[in-house]
Amino acid sequence: MLKYSRLTAVLSAVIIIQFVPSNHSAIAQEREGCFLVNSLGEVINLNLLCSPQESDIKLTGNDGKFLEDYKRLAKSYSPEATDNLLQAIQRAPGQKIAAAKRMCAEAKSGVSLPEVKLRAIGQAVSIENPTVKESFLADADIITTLAANHYCPELASK
């Protein structure tokens, strides 16, 4: 039980940190991106939850359509998850676009889009907070779906 409360506390801290503007960044880090190492030493990728602040940018073309579709699909989840998703896309649209493009690059190198979704499900297993878990899975699902539609349509049926 203590392990789970620690994980919940860490995940809560990560979420709170996202909402506090800061210009500070880490000086050194043993891994790239946003992650959590649990008490078993397992690395849990939190890149979909953590994001640097981005200035308001106007995107057009595929990127603009991607963002519009992301916002539309985000509204199909619970109100809490929808709020989290819309705040994240507003705060860091470039990160979501980059994630979609990375998924296409992975898919083109042989990782199927369903495998990417399964990986997200595996990462979400350790997330205790139901709203955070739903938001994490929804984000992964939306990005994977839209990546195929906007950035690698040739892989959409795979």
Plain-language structure description:
This protein is mainly alpha-helical and 158 residues long. It is built from six helices and two strands; from the N terminus they run αββααααα. It has helices at 2-19, 61-74, 79-91, 93-108, 113-124, 130-150, and strands spanning 35-37, 43-45. The chain has a two-stranded antiparallel sheet. The chain is globular. The relative contact order is 0.15.
Summarize the structure in short:
With 158 residues, the protein is mainly α. 59% of the residues lie in helices and 4% in strands.
Question: What does the secondary structure layout of this molecule look like, with pairings?
Answer:
Layout: H1 2-19, E1 35-37, E2 43-45, H2 61-74, H3 79-91, H4 93-108, H5 113-124, H6 130-150
Helix pairs in contact: 2-3, 2-6, 3-4, 3-6, 4-6, 5-6
Labels describing this entry:
single chain; 158 residues; mainly alpha; 6 helices; 2 strands; 4% strand; globular
**Span between N and C termini?**
41 Å
Sheet with most strands: strand arrangement: 1-2
Question: Sheet with the most strands?
Answer: 2 strands, antiparallel
**What is the overall pLDDT average?**
78
How many separate helices?
A: 6
Output the radius of gyration.
Answer: 16 Å
- In percent, how helical is the residue content? 55-70%
